[in-house]
Design a protein that fits this description.
Elements lengths: L1 H4 L4 H7 L4 E6 L13 H12 L3 E6 L2 E2 L10 H6 L4 E4 L2 E4 L2 E2 L6 H22 L6 E5 L1 H15 L3 E5 L2 H4 L5 H13 L2 E4 L2 H9 L7 E3 L16 H5 L5 E6 L8 H8 L5 E6 L5 H10 L6 E5 L6 H7 L2 E4 L8 H8 L4 E3 L5 H4 L6 E3 L5 H13 L4 H8 L5 H17 L2
Parallel strand pairs: 1-2, 1-7, 2-5, 3-6, 7-8, 8-9, 9-10, 11-12, 11-14, 12-13, 14-15, 15-16
Antiparallel strand pairs: 4-5
Helix pairs in contact: 3-18, 5-6, 6-8, 11-16, 14-17
């Protein structure tokens, strides 16, 4: 292991500033066979980075251990379906198991995750894999473990904050202290939005240490397409509104339902799965709009362009987001959006061609914004043209600059 992962000579590190950078990408947010949409934004950013030819990566994406892959156990069983090792889009991905018991998982996750990660790194190093830098995603517990791993193998670490790792988990004293520790000891930090950068600074990160690199959108996958197939499949006529995301409280699909109740004649399709499904069905029934609501269930990532293209407008009512990828995905398909008034959304929806950010997060304000955007004279082509400003190229080049600066500082 020492031959591969211990500190290189200054000359070798200087050389690393010019040749392709060898990354170890570390995150529990990464897709696998059981959960193909899980953390797809991490994979997508990495794929575009590697496509530049200036970086390579081996991916370490641990999953919680569970003894059964039976569907009746939900997400736990889906994690059990992950292969120990697989190749995705030409990237070698390892899925070691770590213990994450119910109720106490949050407190023991860092130690359990580090043990699994260190064991896997030893196996990876035995194959001759070279690592210059650890590319960590999500600050708790992943970022904490990435920094600890970097210290153990003497490699610099760059962490990317994603959203709830900064806006929610630090509400708990233990995770807050560990997130602050990770930010102090990481060589550099990346935020996906200016709003999230501000939250990191409030937690104690030096502003000069945080680089804002927003997410991009895959303009080849997400593009205007057939507007009829999804409408026919779900028996939709007239105006179609869309809400995409896990059926969890934070996504506030209930707010979208209440807004739709104030707009006669439109249908709302909700794409996603989660524990709120039954309560959303009951709410639609109590609001008298059950016949205008379609719960479409989870959909493969590749199927989403069909939903975006079919819709007249996307609603994003979330209470927290780092950088909401669904907004750009919808716009790239020519579909304008109405988004909640939370940090980050105004950075994505910055022109009337994109849609609107609501003034207040109430059903009435959502309904008013929806009606204004639907009544505007902006074309779907204009919305697509706006999204074309958000390719991945600038983000990839920004990452390379950060990584090379860190490697030069390590000499």
């Amino acid at each position: 292991m020492d031959q591969i992962l211990s500190a290189d000579s200054p000359a070798a590190l200087d050389e690393a500033a010019e040749r392709p950078i060898h990354l170890l990408t570390f995150s529990t947010l990464y897709p696998h066979d059981g959960r193909p949409n899980h953390g797809i934004f991490v994979e997508t950013r990495l794929r575009h980075l590697v496509e530049t030819g200036e970086a390579t990566s081996v991916v370490l994406a641990p999953v919680p251990w569970f003894p059964s892959s039976s569907a009746r156990f939900g997400d736990w069983a889906r994690n059990a379906q992950a292969k120990r090792h697989e190749s995705r889009h030409g990237l070698s991905v390892f899925h070691p198991r770590y213990a994450l018991p119910p109720k106490i998982g949050m407190s023991i996750a860092p130690a359990s995750l580090l043990a699994a990660a260190l064991l896997e790194v030893r196996r990876i190093s035995a194959s001759g894999t070279k690592v210059d830098l650890i590319d960590g995603h999500y600050l708790y517990p992943d970022g904490v473990v990435a920094v600890a791993l970097g210290r153990l193998i003497d490699r610099p670490v760059v962490l990317t904050a994603r959203g709830s790792d900064i806006t929610q988990l630090p509400d708990y004293a233990g995770p807050r202290r560990m997130v602050q520790w990770a930010m102090r000891h990481a060589s550099a930090l990346i935020s996906v939005s200016r709003g999230l950068q501000s939250a990191m600074v409030k937690l104690g990160a030096p502003e000069s240490k945080v680089t804002v690199l927003r997410n991009g959108v895959d303009l080849d996958l997400f593009r205007p397409g057939d507007r009829h197939a999804v409408r026919e499949k779900f028996a939709v006529k007239g105006t179609l509104l869309l809400s995409v995301g896990h059926l969890i409280e934070r996504k506030r699909h209930d707010l979208a339902l209440r807004a739709v109740a104030e707009i006669p004649g439109c249908t709302l399709a909700i794409v996603g799965e989660g524990p709120e499904k039954d309560s959303l069905e009951r709410l639609a029934l109590s609001l008298g709009i059950a016949d205008r609501v379609r719960l479409c269930g989870p959909q493969p990532h590749a199927a989403l362009p069909g939903f975006y293209s079919a819709a007249d407008l996307l609603i994003l009512a979330s209470s927290r987001e780092g950088w909401a990828n669904v907004l750009l995905e919808a716009m790239a398909c020519g579909t304008p959006v109405v988004a909640s008034n939370i940090p980050g959304n105004a950075e994505v929806v910055a022109d009337s061609a994109a849609g609107e950010v609501v003034e207040q997060n109430t059903p009435t304000h959502f309904a008013q914004s929806i009606q204004r955007v639907l009544g505007s004279k902006r074309s779907r082509a204009e919305t697509r043209a706006y999204a074309e400003n958000f390719s991945w190229d600038a983000t990839s080049q920004g990452q390379l600059r950060v990584f090379r600066q860190v490697l030069r500082a390590a000499t």
